[in-house]
Prior knowledge:
Blueprint: H1 2-10, H2 19-39, E1 42-50, E2 58-66, E3 75-79, E4 86-90, H3 96-122, H4 124-129, H5 132-165, H6 168-172, E5 184-189, H7 194-218, H8 222-241
Antiparallel strand pairs: 1-2, 1-5, 3-4
Helix pairs in contact: 2-3, 2-7, 3-5, 5-7
Amino acid sequence: MDTANQLASVGTFQVLKLPLGFIRVLEWLFAIFAFATCGGYSGQLRVSVDCMEKASSNLSIGIDFGYPFRLHQVAFEAPMCEAMRRERVFLAGDYSSSAEFFVTIAVFSFLYSLVATVAYIFFLNKYRENSQRPLIDFVVTVVFSFMWLVSSSAWAKALSDVKVATDPDEVQLLIPACKDPTNKCGSVLGPRWSGLNTSVVFGFLNFVLWAGNIWFVFKETSWHKGGSRLAGSAPDKQAGTFDQQPYDQGSFDQPSEYSQVGGPTSYSNQM
């Protein structure tokens, strides 16, 4: 308890009330949701193959798949409808690159936002004293916002392809016995996509958070502070150029060399 109290007394938890710290906490939480909903996914679909020879039929073929969605490595046993024989069938497609890229960005975002939040709380003065640290924070924030946009877009496209590749109607086309019109194939159960749909939503929400936090991190940099000083000093300089000496009317009062001492001269003819 003493250690916790000392940390609490040293830390500046008021920064969490500011957009700079509050958004970092949201980024940390949303990154957890993003990689948890994508990286922890596992789904299942079921198809049926009803052969002419009923003994060879299999009315519930379970196919399990999940992250990282290397579907071309997912195999299942399907009846050949010939003398109780079975064959190994593989799904089509490999979408691991987009899924792993998305999860990797989420994990690194989680780690960086956690470190940044701790730095804001316990080392805020040192963070602001060194002008390089806010600049690094600003550049990293810009990079992560861009990477979130790219990874979320790529994962959304890959997810749509995964849905097509694992559609029970599409999987039936991979089974040779289903190409025989005398056999009947059908879908029993389709995968649930709520978790993966949520991961895409969290991905774009992370992009919004990181992009929105760019401005608040930029305000801590020397670029913004230097621009603010220049903008504040410009009106002072402009006002100073108009400060002139007051008009001294006495400086223009010159002694008159033609002042008349006496009255006007009269000319009269004396006889």
